[in-house]
Amino acid sequence: MAFDSLSEKLQNVFKNLRSKGRLTEDDVKAALKEVKMALLEADVNFKVVKGFIKDVQERAVGQDVMNGLNPGQMVIKIVNEELVRLMGSETTEIKLQPGSAITVIMMAGLQGAGKTTTTAKLAGKFKLKGKKPLLVACDVYRPAAIKQLEINAEKQGVEMFSMGDKNKPADIAKAAVEHAAKNGNNIVILDTAGRLHVDEDMMAELQEIKEAVEVHQTILVVDAMTGQDAVNVASSFNDKIGIDGVIVTKLDGDTRGGAALSIKAVTGKPILYVGMGEKLSDLEQFYPDRMASRILGMGDVLSLIEKAGAELDEEKAKKMADKMKKAQFDFEDYLDSMEQMRKMGGLSSIMGMLPGMGNLGGKMPDLDSEENEKKMAQMEAVIYSMTLEERRNPDLLNPSRKHRIAKGAGVDIADVNRMVKQFNDIIAAQSMDLENSSADSFGTLWNQFSLDVKVVTEGGKALVDKSYKAGEKIDLKSNETAAEGPEDVADDSPKKLDETKAAK
After folding, report:
1. Which fold has domain 4-87?
2. Nearest Cα to 46, choosing from 191, 236, 261?
3. 271 partner at 20 to 30 Å CA-CA among 88, 195, 233, 239?
């Protein structure tokens, strides 16, 4: 997962800081030296690291920090604020033309960065917002590029415009804008050709498109896994054609995350979205403050709530919880619960957003490992080998039925017995929790998100203290009880949170 390595190293540094009652200037400098090494190992641009450490040190050795009641926490707070500033401070939206006017967006990037897939995902995002996007195939060089865009457009349920591979990209773009005007499309997204490296032909072609049609937004797609190369590519594109923003793809596969931390500082252009997987929902809006929280191990509860709202079926989850409470939970529901977990990105993805558990997913890579995926597939095969009656009434599963199911699923009878026992244990545990809970639908993933969100710190100050219904638009600025910044970001462990809540 993104930033796993950096997050772990930074948390170790801060753990040492928090253990000291008072800090000397030498303590701060020693800690920042370790922070510097961690950032460099994460492939953050050297000049960016140098400036970052200088800014943090200037603030951290001040009189207020050194003589404060909790200087270690103050240093962490400063690092958090500087990380946010480094990545852009404010969340940047793609600027659209007012009213019904057509917005032309040109997507650019090197071959292999995931530009075509990202282009389609972006169109899907606009569609969800009530817009009518038109995808335009301007890559006339790469074999099957047009077909790929067509397939992705179909997946997102958006329109696509193509003139084959015999026309110039500038002419295609011009015709597409005319088509959009006639057919009521208010966003035109141009999928341009990529190259293996930055060259003059590519830049000339992009410039030609800009001369043929009025391009309102030029968005660069870069691959996070290329590290500093991604930053260099962004600088080159910005210098030669000018870009308005960047989308960083494959961030889920990059444990270092140096590109995401460097791009804004080097180019001056904001990161708009980050790609965290294959699904549409895995193209996430980039929030600098939330990303800083993830890096420092403080979790990202708000993104988790939003993800739940987008992915989970509320009615289905409520029914599931009710059935579990009444001990009516069956194998059909078990299948649904596995699917809901998959939609959320797996257990490690969820853990990465929980305060105090930021890098546990990285320490336990087997959570979503290939082996575990195989086990889940095996469980699904066993359930699908049952009759509908058996799925809905697990008490029917006698030895002869289990033998038949094992043969149908291609597994050993012991595997079936193990899965049935696991299922019964889960039901017993969950029904006990639900009986002891005052919340009618406690125990399901959805309803945990629908409860009051209260993320507190050691000092008892609330970072988030508000009731959010899953799917509700979250805006920390409107939350009057929320702190302006994490003054205390010390021990966010579940145990500490429980102690803090009890104290309150």
Report:
1. Four Helix Bundle (Hemerythrin (Met), subunit A) (1.20.120)
2. 261
3. 195
